Structure formats: C-alpha cells, structure tokens
Amino acid sequence: MPKYVIERDLPGAGSLSAEELQNISQKSCSVLEQMGPKIQWVESYVTGDKIYCIYIAQDEQAIREHAQQGGFPANRISEVSRVIDPTTAES
After folding, report:
1. What pTM value is reported for the model?
2. Residue 44 burial class via C-beta count within 10 angstroms: exposed 0-12, middle 13-18, buried 19 and up
C-alpha cells in the first residue's frame, strides 16, 4: 500500500499537553480500528503549529475519511514516491 505524509494545520500544536496529545492519539486509533486494514498510522511529528503524520493507506480517500471521522484537519496529503536516507549517499 502507498505511504502518505499528511500536513495538519493545528495552531498551538507544539504547546499541546501530553494529555491532549494522548486524547488526539486515542481518537485517531479508535477511528482506525473502525476503518479496518485499509489504513495504518505509522507516526507523527508535532511542530509549533502543525502535525505531520505518516500513514500507509490504500488511497488518499481513506486518509480523508479518517480525518473526517476523527475531526482532524488534513490540509495537505502527499503520496511518498521514494524514501532516502544517509545510506542513499553511499555508492
């Protein structure tokens, strides 16, 4: 299945408490459980005013469905075409 990066505009995201982040995570997992195997949350990165999420999903529509059911913004959804890391520099 394809991998996606989801950019979520969430003013003050970096100031959310551990409890608030836990609540958001629990809501996300609850929706994912209902949606079944067509979508999987890998991890997320919290910055000042955004959360960047990595998901594996059958298609972009599954990402949008998750966002709608969970009440999360999904301001930009980008399919990952390739992954590189420091080992990519090695010949």
Report:
1. 0.92
2. middle
